[in-house]
Design brief:
Blueprint: H1 3-21, E1 24-27, H2 31-41, E2 51-55, H3 82-89, E3 93-98, H4 132-139, E4 145-149, H5 156-162, E5 165-168, E6 189-193, H6 196-206, E7 236-240, H7 250-265, E8 269-273, H8 281-296, H9 315-326, H10 329-342, H11 348-369, E9 374-378, H12 394-399, H13 405-410, E10 414-422, E11 425-433, H14 438-448
Helix pairs in contact: 1-2, 4-5, 8-10, 8-11
The chain binds glutamine (GLN).
């Protein structure tokens, strides 16, 4: 099969399902031409002719990039994100831009200006979020891999809800240049795919130091795929007892326990440990993430780019109306929360306190990882919930992130690995490792595949 044929067929499949799934904000119908060019030029890069989808908060030169917000609904980037440049150089074919929660704020893709995406297994359920569109298109088998971003779980939770593999690498592994900023100390780009090998390949392609992003590491990028190793003998797995707390669906826990038994059979040791600060993780995350978001989102003022309100009398009204009309409710909620937490009277009690508790939690996690190779547990407290079920209850939606937030607060690599089903819906096993030890995650995921 030629790359052109593969791409054409894939695009047809995507179009035929899009009514039901709403996985994309923009489908790239020119992808067939790009693929024909790859066929004509011959195999040049490691991803030559491979169809990949890209979350719509990653800048693509000359192709609409909306972050699923009305305020960016007409935004045409004049440059591409480093990660997208790297995919292009490797010969990957861009199938289009996938739907997300507005500015990646959410856990269900329901806050998207373009309407919710649907779970690939059950269209009445959410695909998770914020990388919901990416998860859906990978789970249906259309994109071989998709890029996502993960600030508090946005790659792992939708991967878990759709039964695919998804990895958020170490903070600093992958450039954030050209990625729409949400919370800069937590945001990370990562990969979702059905097969572990494919994510390893794509992650290697996009990883590495970037002069445009001072937080990227100078460390050499590992060839994770070539080093894949299923041998679990001598691997030490820590299981935080708090992950088994009452809020988690017992059927989810049963599936996770079975996966851990498999690891024991394969030679790993599994031991219970404690993360006492986990109970504060959600509060810490929502203070820090909202504070950073309120600062990052100041740039959307209706002047420089994006949506601009009409019929305004003065510049102040231009700012106010553009923002009032351009941002959705969840984004406004975060801006208000964050602005409050950073204000002179509240800073010490909220932002500073959250930053201090974050440090305590980081030390707790690193202490465990000094004695163990992996931390394992469920990704989520339940399988995919129904569309509309939690959208009017922000606190319930936020609590849903408790198990994924730790890895972001500490900048650790973490993944969701398909572990089985509960009531017919997929359950993801979460694996976290030491900073820059993505290999241990890939290996353990590969052993379970
Ligand atoms: N659900 C979390 C939030 O709403 C995480 C989102 C993300 O990782 N982008 O902030």
């Amino acid at each position: 099969i030629t790359s052109e044929e593969l791409t054409k067929e894939t695009l047809q499949r995507i179009h035929s399902k899009e009514d039901k799934l709403n996985a994309f904000v923009t489908i790239n119908d020119d992808a067939t031409k790009d693929a024909a060019k790859v066929d004509a030029d011959g195999i040049k890069g490691r991803l030559s002719g491979i169809p990949i989808a890209v979350k719509d908060n990653i800048l693509t030169k000359g192709m609409l990039t909306t972050a699923s917000s009305k305020i960016l609904s007409n935004f045409m980037p004049i440059y591409s994100a480093t990660v997208f440049e790297k995919l292009n150089q490797a010969g990957a074919i861009n199938l289009g831009k996938t739907n997300l929660d507005e500015f990646a704020m959410g856990s269900s893709t329901e806050t998207s200006y373009y309407g919710t995406s649907h779970n690939a297994w059950d269209h009445t359920k959410v695909p998770g979020g914020s990388s919901g569109g990416s998860a859906t298109t990978v789970a249906t088998g259309d994109a071989i891999a998709a890029l996502g971003t993960d600030t508090g779980g946005s790659i792992r939770q939708p991967s878990s809800f759709n039964g695919i593999f998804g990895i958020k690498p170490t903070y600093g592994r992958v450039s954030r240049w050209g990625v729409v900023a949400f919370s800069s100390s937590l945001d990370e780009v990562g990969v979702m795919s059905k097969r572990v090998e494919d994510s390893a390949e794509v992650l290697q392609t996009i990883a590495g130091h970037d002069d445009h992003d001072a937080t990227t590491s100078e460390r050499e990028v590992t060839d994770w795929r070539a080093n894949l190793n299923k041998d679990m003998h001598g691997i030490k797995i820590a299981v935080p007892k708090e992950f088994w707390h009452e809020g988690t669906d017992p059927k989810v826990l049963k599936t996770i326990d079975e996966a851990l038994d498999t690891y024991k059979k394969l030679g790993a040791t599994v031991e219970e440990i404690s993360l006492p600060t986990l109970k504060h993780a959600v509060e810490v995350y929502y203070v820090i993430a909202s504070s950073e978001a309120s600062s990052n989102l100041q740039r959307y003022d209706g002047v420089r780019y994006g949506y601009r309100a009409k019929d305004v009398k003065n510049i102040k009204q231009l700012f106010v109306n553009s923002r009032s009309e351009g941002f959705g409710d969840e984004v406004k909620r975060r801006i208000m929360l964050g602005t409050f937490a950073l204000s002179a009277g509240a800073y010490d009690a909220y932002f500073k306190k959250a930053a201090q508790v974050r440090t305590i939690f980081i030390n707790e996690l690193n202490d465990v990882l000094s004695k163990y190779d992996l931390i394992a547990g469920p990704v989520t407290t339940s399988t995919a919930f129904g569309i509309g079920e939690k959208i009017d209850d922000p606190l319930a939606m936020y609590m849903n992130d408790i198990l994924t937030i730790p890895a972001n607060l500490a900048g650790l690599p973490a993944a969701s690995v398909p572990a089985g089903l509960a009531d017919g819906m997929p359950v993801g096993l979460q694996l976290m490792a030491k900073q820059f030890d993505e290999q241990s995650i890939f290996n353990a995921a590969y052993a379970l595949q």
